[in-house]
Design brief:
The chain has 364 residues and is an alpha/beta fold. The protein has helices spanning 2-8, 18-21, 39-49, 106-111, 113-134, 170-189, 199-207, 237-247, 266-278, 295-306, 330-336, 344-359; strands at 29-34, 54-60, 79-83, 96-99, 137-143, 216-222, 225-226, 251-254, 260-262, 264-265, 285-287, 292-294, 312-315. Bound molecules: uridine-5'-diphosphate-glucuronic acid (UGA). Its cofactor is NAD(+).
């Protein structure tokens, strides 16, 4: 009886790798960024590379990302770029994983929805498997789209959302919701978890080479982000309007134009993600700028700042477009001490400058 009780008792959590335990005696932190050749990923690479103790490894399949975004780091001894699709397993030794890989623009993620949901589900499983094997901390970039077409405004993290499970956006928003579920399931199933142990016990356990913890997770819910290096033909609203204004084309406001979004400048986003990774809070945490604009207001602002002579035209919208979106960032302020600094009117000219250079449109 005693033997069978012993056999059926739950297994202890798996041990973090020796690499993780010896972290306190090593100078370098090895950081993987999946999707690091993309818009937000490449800005994150720039920031992490500023710290000489970081080694950065980017894994990207270049579906929407580009080597161009990382050209200044190629050949750097602390930087490595791997062509890799996260739907396949990746076996490397790292301390931290920023898991960003997934097309984020609606036209790109709807282009191959099966691939999008595979990236979110199988890709996140593979990254979690890696995190579990090597004892790495993993941060998932989830999205404001998990709130769907929200019935609560602004959206706090406690809101469960209003999502169409069979719509054309589901590959992305339901995909990210499953990715969040996987993160928490790995956290609960493969480790005692920081819900129950404060940080100092975690540190003490590592110093004593005890392995109380396994999969440490962080979840950021990213709200609409803009800035230099967005794909010019990305299809999202800020990049569309800036490219249209510079090409002298009418700004295409999708109907009704009263729908709202809250736009966060990319440097603020990267700062929020890094604070979340380094802090003690698992999340989910909203990272976004609460400044809220209708699409007509955004078009008028772009027109005024970049090209007052262009027209604004109303065009058809796509199904399930959320009518309003604005982050409640109380939690980010409290637990990360983070809030965005760059206002829309300050960020748009910085993005305009980058788009001018890439489109070859000189300033008048
Ligand atoms: O930019 C982002 O960070 C987010 O972009 C998309 O979400 P969405 O808010 O639909 O992004 P957009 O395609 O930029 O659309 C925003 C609004 O602008 C409108 N829009 C878009 C493009 C355009 O040319 N004109 C226009 O009025 C859309 O109808 C929508 O109401 C993604 O699905 C999110 O995951 C991602 O986090």
């Amino acid at each position: 009886m005693a033997t069978s009780e012993k056999q059926s008792s739950p297994k202890p959590p798996p041990s973090p790798s020796p690499l993780r335990n010896s972290k306190f005696f090593q100078s370098n932190m090895r950081i993987l960024i999946s999707g690091g050749a993309g818009f937000i990923g490449s800005h994150l690479v720039d920031k992490l590379m500023e710290n000489e103790k970081n080694e950065v490894i980017v894994a990207d399949n270049y579906f929407t990302g580009s080597k161009d975004n990382l050209k200044k780091w190629i050949g750097h001894p602390r930087f490595e770029l791997i062509r890799h699709d996260v739907t396949e397993p990746l076996l490397i030794e790292v301390d931290q994983i920023y898991h960003l890989a997934c097309p984020a623009s609606p036209i790109f993620y709807k282009y191959n929805p099966v691939k999008t949901i595979k990236t979110n589900v199988i890709g996140t499983l593979n990254m979690l498997g890696l995190a579990k094997r090597v004892g790495a901390r993993i941060l998932l970039t989830s999205t404001s789209e998990v709130y769907g077409d929200p019935l609560i405004h602004p959206q706090p993290e406690s809101y469960w959302g209003n999502v169409n499970p069979i719509g054309v956006r589901s590959c992305y928003d339901e995909g990210k919701r499953v990715a969040e579920t996987l993160m928490f399931d790995y956290h609960r199933q493969h480790g005692i978890g920081q819900f129950y142990f404060p940080r100092f016990i975690e540190i003490l356990s590592r110093l004593l080479f005890l392995t109380l913890f396994s999969v440490e997770i962080r979840i950021a819910r990213i709200f609409n982000t803009y800035g230099p290096r967005m794909n010019i033909d990305d299809g999202r609203v800020v990049s569309n309007f800036i490219a249209q204004a510079l090409r002298g084309e009418a700004l295409t406001v999708q109907k009704p134009g009263t729908q709202t979004r809250s736009f966060c400048y990319v440097s603020d986003m990267v700062e929020g993600l890094m604070r979340l990774m380094e802090g003690d809070e698992t999340g989910p945490i909203n990272i976004g700028n609460p400044g809220e604009f209708t699409m007509v207001e955004l078009a008028e602002t772009v027109k005024e700042l970049i090209n007052p002579s262009i027209k604004i035209k109303m065009v058809e919208n796509t199904p399930d477009d959320p009518r309003q979106r604005k982050p409640d960032i109380t939690k980010a302020k409290e637990v990360l001490g983070w809030e965005p600094k760059v206002k829309l009117r300050e960020g748009l000219p910085l993005m305009e400058e980058d788009f001018r250079q890439r489109l070859g449109v000189p300033k008048k």
